Amino acid sequence: MKFLSLIPLCFLLCLCVHRNLKGDSNSRGTDNIDEWGRLHPDPERWPSSKGWKGFKNVADKVHDMDLKFGIHLMAGISTQAYDSNTPILDTKTGKAYEESGKVWHAKDIGVPGRACKWMSNGFMALNVTSGAGKAFLRSLYELYISWGLDFVKLDCVFGEDIDFEEITYVSQILKELKPSIVFSLSPGVSATPNMAKVVNGLVNMYRVTGDDWDQWSQVVTHFDVARDYAAAKLIGAQGLNGNSWPDLDMLPFGWLTDPGQDIYIAFFNLNDKATTISWKFDDLVKALPGKKLVKGLDGREVWSLNRVVLNDVLSAEVAAHGCALFVFDY
Ligand SMILES: *[C@@H]1O[C@H](CO)[C@@H](O)[C@H](O)[C@H]1NC(C)=O
């Protein structure tokens, strides 16, 4: 498909790279943390990280290929750091954080009553109001940025796990330490346009839907959500050092059509300028081998409501970061 070649190449390391292979994704005590309670990659999975080198070597390699390097992080603090009650690094002194005559530890800043909703054994919220909470976040991002980050996806901080204070403080740190970083939030369960309006200026992307797994019933819910965020003028609204975008995430690329009679074709333009995207009738025939298709299918583009007829080629100019959705009667 032609539009696939337009996707800006980005290498995003996904979930749980810090958990070792023996624990399941929500098990306690299977993370790799340093003496300051900060998560590092599991050296069994990432041998180049041995000796607390983190993802520096991986990021260098990714940059050599002209790609961007991003990681997925969980907000708050890991249960493992909390259980181990690790001290907090004050990066200004290089020593443990001290305030009001005491050395602060993970148990002084973790909030076990606010566990991450979807990984409740792994992570809990952090008291960002406290000086020690802020010092912990700063120590995390100084470390991760030193590996060469271009993109941060911060999970368990939006939607049903909204933590406005952590989003605000992380945004401030990123702006100060590396303004070119793209800052993305997750998860999107229970996100609303009103919630997005509070954070859009602090970030570049935020999930607005939960996960979907290649089922039409899950995909179809995205359309109403996209409409609501568009109506609220949030698409391309002001963001951190630039613009911000509601993120539908996990939209399946591939062959997926509804159980009814209609045929849907969507174009996504991930390019930062308007781009003409085309699709051939022959591709549709290959995608839907069970259907007897004839040229001249009648349909409409749902956002513009323009009528379209599918003959040899379907072509449309799509706005930067925009999409077009065609529905054909069959
Ligand atoms: C968070 O820290 C502040 C400042 O130290 C403190 O006043 C507040 O009670 C703490 N909140 C929680 C939930 O621990």
From TrEMBL:
Signal peptide: 1-23
Catalysed reactions, as listed in the record: Hydrolysis of terminal, non-reducing alpha-D-galactose residues in alpha-D-galactosides, including galactose oligosaccharides, galactomannans and galactolipids
Alphabetical list of Gene3D superfamilies matching this protein: Aldolase class I
Gene Ontology BP terms: carbohydrate metabolic process
Top-level taxon of origin: Eukaryota
Enzyme nomenclature, EC number: 3.2.1.22
Annotated Alpha galactosidase C-terminal domain residues: 261-327
Keyword Ribonucleoprotein listed: no
GO molecular function terms listed in the Swiss-Prot or TrEMBL record: alpha-galactosidase activity
Alphabetic keyword roster: Glycosidase, Hydrolase, Signal
SUPFAM superfamilies: (Trans)glycosidases (SSF51445)
Protein family per UniProt: Belongs to the glycosyl hydrolase 27 family.
Protein name: alpha-galactosidase
Originating organism: Lupinus luteus
